[in-house]
Each structure stands twice: as C-alpha cells, then as structure tokens.
Amino acid sequence: MHPWNEPLLESLRHRAGRLPHALLIHGAQGVGKRALAERIAQLLLCEARDAARKPCGACEGCRWYAGGNHPDFRRLEPEVLAPPPDAAAAEEEGEAPARRGKPSLEIKIDQVRELADFLNIGSHRGGLRVALVHPAEEMNINAANALLKALEEPPAGAVFLLVSHRPARLLPTIRSRCVALPVAVPPREAALRWLSGQGMPDAERWLAYAGGAPLRALDYAGKAALIERMLRAPAAVEDRDELELLAEALQKSALDRAFAALGAAAKYRTGVPSVPRARGVAWLAYARQLGKDRPLCRHPLNPKLFSAYLIAAMPDEVTS
Ligand SMILES: [Zn+2]
Q: Which of 297, 188, 167 is nearest to 239 (CA)?
C-alpha cells in the first residue's frame, strides 16, 4: 500500500469491529485505491488478537492472504486484468484457442454468481468473508444486478469492497448500499517524495500531467516518448490502448491551451503552444467534447478511424 493512504487504513483499523458490510473505495485513477482495498481485505482477514497490529503479516490469515489463496477471500476482476487459471493451463496443453477469444474487459454475471455461491457457504476460518470487486464500474448490467441482490441481502459476515474510479457509472442502487470511502489525490510533496523513491525522472512534469495521481504519473513516464509525440504531432493510431492515450493527450493539451488563452495557468504542463485569447472558448468546447468521446475509446469500431475523427475535430490555433 502507498504511504499517503496510511491514515485511511488507520481510521478503519479502529473501527474494524464495526465496519459496514459494503465499502465503495473511490477516487481518481492512480491514487492507490486498489492497493488500499487489498490492505483492507487483509486487515479484515487478519487473526491477530491486538487490533492495533492488524494486519499483522504473521498470523495464519495473513499468510493465506499473502499467498493469494485465503479461502474466505474472492477477487472479481475482468479477465483482461486476471486471466482465469484454466486459460493458462489450456494454453500449455495446446488446446485450440477458438473457444477462448479475447479476454473480457467486463466483469460478467458468471463471476458474480460464483461469488454468491462462495458467500452462501460458511466461513472457512470462522471470521469474515471478503469480496473485492475491481474496477466495479466494469460490471456489465447483468453482473451489477446480481451483485445488487447480494448487497441487498448480505450473508452474515460478508464484506464487499468495491473499487471504482467512475462511481457515477455504478447503479445508483449499488452506490446507495455502500458506505463511500473517498481516496484523495495525495499532497504534491508526498507524491513527489514517493515518485523520487521510485527513481522516476521528470517527476514534476508527469505528476502534473496525471493531475496529481502518482501511480498514473509513473505509468505515463514509462510511455513518455509516445505521449510527447502525441502532444507535438497527433496522428491516427491503430490500437485501442494507444487510442485512449491519444484522446487523453488531445484533451489535456486542449485544456492547457484554453486555460492559457483565458489567462489561467496550464494545469497539465503539456508544453503546447498558446493560442490567442479569442480561441480559448473553442478549445474549451473541444476539450469538453473529448470528455464525452473518451469513454467510447474503450470500444471503438475502428481505432484508426475514431482517432482520425478526434484529430479532425480539433479547432484551429489562430483564426476565429
Ligand atoms: Zn494477521
């Protein structure tokens, strides 16, 4: 877990006996929500007697958890984040790839059904049972409805940890069943200290580009050359991941242009040339439109066409 989230864990440690049965851990991408959720799961499953020492890292519960096979813990993620173990085994045995296809981006209803089965049998270790759903907004509608049912009639001793950076995309009925645990962007100094500990060059620049989210900054720094090229000379891209990166680069540079034109500081340090004051509004409108288009980048019919469309919609820099 990341040091800036320690106070959040501390606040839960003291309420460990009285925690709600469902927590919605939400906040910007790259602030360490998932690692925090994992730590909370371990805290809940730790069997140490002294609450102040939880999670102790030494008891049987902690050892099971660290080994990735605690019998009272389940993690729900899209296949794309966690390929099912049988897929890897099938690969090794040279099974025909036809029935597998692309790993899913969604959390599916089968996964939630398995979770419900797991929750309906008793606890193996006599304590709580914990389900971590990440990212919760990737549940498709059937999966979300099935999870809602479990949240409405929670089995005794079950705790749900939902992690989301787009809580607005969750069913309102799911949100209302959870106690919200907001995870804020850490103070800039703390973020920079951590990034320098990771040996990251240009930390200030990428932290600004990431809107202050340290893990995001780290990720961007690894793609620095690609992002720089997208900022300087945006061009159509072929693949889905690059499309998301491009839409982001277009949006951030548009916002920086608009901010500068309207007399504010460039927030994302994209280094794009400024535009005349009269063009500020057009760039702001473009940035807002990109905000609406960006979710479509995850499921484009054709990344190349879609990226060309995003670039073509760019306002020009000088004329009004
Ligand atoms: Zn422990």
A: 297
Query: Ligand 1 mean position to 38 CA, how many Å?
Result: 13
Query: Under DSSP, is residue 92 helix (H, G, I), strand (E, B) or coil?
Result: helix
pLDDT mean across residues, the chain: 89
pLDDT > 70? residue 292: yes
Residue 234, sorted as left (phi over 0), alpha (psi -120 to 50) or beta, turns out to be: beta
Q: How far is the CA of 119 from the centre of ligand 1 (A)?
A: 22
Give distance in angstroms: CA of 58 to centre of ligand 1.
Answer: 5
Let me know: does 61 contact 125? Beta carbons within 8 Å.
yes
Superfamily covering domain 3-182: P-loop containing nucleotide triphosphate hydrolases (3.40.50.300)
Compute, in angstroms, the gap from residue 60 CA to the centroid of ligand 1.
7
Distance 271 CA to ligand 1 centre (A): 48
Which part of the chain has CATH 3.40.50.300?
3-182
pTM attached to this predicted model: 0.87
42 Cα–ligand 1 center, Å: 7
Beta carbons within 10 angstroms of residue 128's beta carbon: 19
pLDDT in tens, 97-132: 444 567 788 999 999 999 989 988 888 888 899 999
Measured from the Cβ of residue 169, the count of other Cβ atoms closer than 10 Å reads: 14
- Give 158 Cα–ligand 1 centroid separation in angstroms: 18
